[in-house]
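Appendix B. Chain record.
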Amino acid sequence: MLDIPFASYWWFFPVLVWVYAWKGLALWHSARHKDMWWFVAFLFLNTLGVLEILYLYVFAEKKPDLKFPWKNRVFAHKTSDQPVSEQFKEEVKDDVSAA
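Structure tokens predicted for this chain:
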């Protein structure tokens, strides 16, 4: 066996924490969004967090923020004569029924 001191593996633990943090977050989001193929890819592929970060910030579907509705796109522009809160409720209802 090779006699390599532990000091040469100092980078292993931070990389392990980095990879599993992103992998856990991506697995959780893909399971909640019912993205089966993404879930399987995250489970079997190890890309040091790159694929997970791409999924979370580029490919994942954004859901409306119900706690802070002013952050949603509905409040950026008014497309009808309804009050904005009613328009937001209708869009959320449409999004939920489409899912």
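Further analysis of this model is presented in Appendix C.
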